[in-house]
């Protein structure tokens, strides 16, 4: 057997197969398809990752918006629990709001008369405090600066400070008070001047007021704890 020819024949066959252009094109096409598949797979994974990141970003925005909404609309109100000594039954004590106080006629009467006395009464010892503090805290800005300070200021010759000085004083006597509405009052008073000057004046007052959430100092809050403010004040002779 001629082994030389046999091996030569096989070698020639292999060379012929490798050098065959059809086989080369087939292998090149398979390699290209494999690369395309890997590229497409990478593109799909990238797109899925971007979609996932976008969804996470949207969820974060929704969560932040929800937290902000709850922060602005919800509040945590403290409460007090009272334990009944004998039975031990707990009871939640409901806090009283400004609206609750403002609906109380006794509270309204108190602040109305506190304002009138601070404004219309005159004692040389307390005038400065009433003028600079009490009436200011209990008045709206328009009532205090446009009305009260002009009438009761030190530079006005007709103000009680200049009329009565330290020789006389003026007191307020209540005759009647009615509330036409929740935020208005009609009051009949007499102003009695005693000392070096003696006289009595009958007056009728119409005033409007309300309760406000005011930003006040601790000292002012002691004068006006509920934010009561007079928004309109008119006083005339009762017989006029």
From TrEMBL:
<keyword id="KW-1133">Transmembrane helix</keyword>
<feature type="domain" description="Bacterial virulence protein VirB8">
    <location>
        <begin position="33"/>
        <end position="238"/>
    </location>
</feature>
<feature type="transmembrane region" description="Helical">
    <location>
        <begin position="48"/>
        <end position="70"/>
    </location>
</feature>
<dbReference type="GO" id="GO:0016020">
    <property type="term" value="C:membrane"/>
</dbReference>
<dbReference type="InterPro" id="IPR026264">
    <property type="entry name" value="VirB8/PtlE"/>
</dbReference>
<keyword id="KW-0812">Transmembrane</keyword>
<protein>
    <recommendedName>
        <fullName>Bacterial virulence protein VirB8 domain-containing protein</fullName>
    </recommendedName>
</protein>
<dbReference type="InterPro" id="IPR007430">
    <property type="entry name" value="VirB8"/>
</dbReference>
<dbReference type="GO" id="GO:0030255">
    <property type="term" value="P:protein secretion by the type IV secretion system"/>
</dbReference>
<dbReference type="InterPro" id="IPR032710">
    <property type="entry name" value="NTF2-like_dom_sf"/>
</dbReference>
<dbReference type="Pfam" id="PF04335">
    <property type="entry name" value="VirB8"/>
</dbReference>
<keyword id="KW-0472">Membrane</keyword>
